[in-house]
Amino acid sequence: MTGIPFYKMTGSGNDFVILDGRSTGPEQWPEARVRAICDRRNGVGADGLVILTPMTSDSVRMTYWNSDGSLGAMCGNAALCCGRLASELQLVPRGEFCLLTDAGAVRVRSPDAHRHAEINLPDFDPPTPFERTDLAEGESWISMVTVGVPHLVVRVDDIESVEPATRGRFLRFHPALGSAGANVNFVAPETQSGGIWLIRTYERGVEGETLACGTGTVAAAASLAHRREARLPLTFRSRGGLELSVRAQLSADRVSEAWLGGEGRLSFRGVWQQPNP
Asked: Does 86 share its domain with 26?
């Protein structure tokens, strides 16, 4: 069968089409083609597209597009999926390797445990208050933090009362964020006693709620720790129902040694027959 071989992977419900860079290159994927393969009715369907290209014996480049065809500097759950797949495709030896992204180099650990990986993200600046808009009912505060890509973190009382399609979209396009905007992550404790935190995300480039957001989860952990509402390490339950873990070192002027752990599961593989233009 002719066509484009692909791997469909999911990280806590955040799903991706991943291609082997030995058989295709980023220059072959204009926006329209990315949108076509990510289309959930006429394509494979995904929140984003990734091309994994081997660079050295222990490094792989991750080129990432959102489902709308826009390039993304970083995607945490895509990186977790790449951590599993890169070794399965023998692009790098199994164990630890370097994933090169447009947001910097990411260390990846892919242990033998099925479906799980860890990524060590580049250092980033601590969260800052976002005070350019009024709080909505049930919101306590909003923080701004860039973890590869910009994020707003919104502390809410009840995660089920959140309306990402309206409130999330409003904040994502807030004029104070400029033309790029930001992802918007709503967080609340699972119970009032704390423990696991719940998170929901409106993701730019997808322009809707996704079932998980890896860098958004790291942003949420840093924001909660910075405001002393919680202590690192932290565990979050995504909208997809699975848990992601975050540990990091937080100082007055830097967040370092940030590790995200979570699912990187191969759902299926296949061959995409691109429709005729």
From this structure: yes
Do 69 and 104 fall into the same domain? yes
Are residues 179 and 69 both part of a single domain?
Answer: no
Pairing of strands 14-20, 48-56: parallel
pLDDT tens digits in sequence order for the chain, 277 residues long: 579 999 999 999 999 999 999 999 999 999 999 999 999 999 999 999 999 999 999 999 999 999 999 999 999 999 999 999 998 899 998 889 999 999 999 999 987 656 889 999 999 999 999 999 999 999 999 999 999 999 999 999 999 999 999 999 999 999 999 999 999 999 999 976 568 999 999 999 999 999 999 999 999 999 999 999 999 999 999 999 999 999 999 999 999 999 999 999 999 999 999 876 6
- Domain containing residue 195: CATH number: 3.10.310.10
The helix (H) or strand (E) run that includes residue 53 is strand 48-56
What positions carry a catalytic annotation? 75, 213
- 244 with 223, same domain: the answer is yes
Cβ 53 vs Cβ 20: under 8 Å: no
Structure tokens at 98: 């370097």
pTM (two decimals): 0.94
List the domain range (segments joined by +) for residue 80.
Answer: 4-122+264-272
Helix (H) or strand (E) holding 34: helix 31-38
